[in-house]
Amino acid sequence: MAEFVVPRPAQVSVPVAGGGLFPVRRVYCVGRNYAEHAREMGNDPKDPPFFFAKPADALVIGGGSVPYPPQTQDLHHEVELVVAIGRDGFGIEVEDALAHVYGYAAGIDLTRRDLQAAAKKAGRPWEMAKAFDHSAPIGEIVPAEKIGHPDKGAITLAVNGAERQRGDLADQIWTVAETIAYLSQFVALKAGDLVFTGTPAGVGAVVAGDVIEGDIEGIGTVRTQIV
């Protein structure tokens, strides 16, 4: 049996509330899934969803700190509901989609906004704005068998104790089931995938020293500090 010629990368995993680890395969993110955030970014909330990806090793686990990333002067926070996929599927129907969910977590999509704006203007991909190292802090995953499938509840984010973002899961343009079904028309979803489902209005810049805390009612929290 052939051996690996360089050290094998570690399996990225997220702690599960109550015990165990969720092994991460891919991380998908929905762009603009709350109407007010779509408007604050100058977009039409009626547009269909679109997706981008982050590498699994961009996840920041257990309240770890985030080094302020290079090549930006405008790092933004975006609090998001994260869906953990527990069952494979392709071409999933909306009515079957929630059966593919293992659980939920609170997450933060960090964005190099100046790089994103430049990429948009030039019609280029967003990877360097979204998929950089340490760009996806995440809290514990709570199994759906314990909490069901929340479709309402406050989603908030505070910086240094001052609230900046507040929305409700009920404000999502595309529900979790609709998002899973739509995404699965393009790629086969697998157990171990995560889906960041978009952020409410109020995104803004953070700097070194800031403590960011996200909370989703009935699901949990996510915390990190920019260093």
Write the layout of secondary structure elements.
Layout: E1 13-15, E2 21-23, E3 27-31, H1 35-40, E4 50-54, E5 59-61, E6 75-77, E7 79-85, E8 101-108, E9 111-112, H2 113-122, H3 127-130, E10 136-138, E11 142-143, H4 144-147, E12 154-159, E13 162-168, H5 176-183, E14 194-196, E15 204-206, E16 211-216, E17 220-225
Parallel strand pairs: 3-14, 5-10
Antiparallel strand pairs: 1-2, 3-4, 6-9, 6-15, 7-8, 7-14, 8-11, 12-13, 12-16, 16-17
Keywords:
17 strands, globular, single chain, alpha+beta, 227 residues, Fumarylacetoacetate hydrolase, domain 2, six-stranded mixed β-sheet
Plain-language structure description:
This is Fumarylacetoacetase-like C-terminal domain-containing protein. It comes from Devosia geojensis. Keywords: Metal-binding. Pfam families: FAA_hydrolase. One of its GO terms (molecular function) is acetylpyruvate hydrolase activity. This protein has 227 residues and is an alpha+beta fold. It has a single domain, classed as Fumarylacetoacetate hydrolase, domain 2, CATH 3.90.850.10. 14% of the residues lie in helices and 33% in strands. It has five helices and 17 strands. It has helices at 35-40, 113-122, 127-130, 144-147, 176-183; strands at residues 13-15, 21-23, 27-31, 50-54, 59-61, 75-77, 79-85, 101-108, 111-112, 136-138, 142-143, 154-159, 162-168, 194-196, 204-206, 211-216, 220-225. The strands form five sheets. Strands 4-3-14-7-8-11 form a six-stranded mixed beta sheet. The chain is globular and about 40 Å long. The protein starts with 12 loop residues before the first strand and ends with a strand. The mean pLDDT is 95.
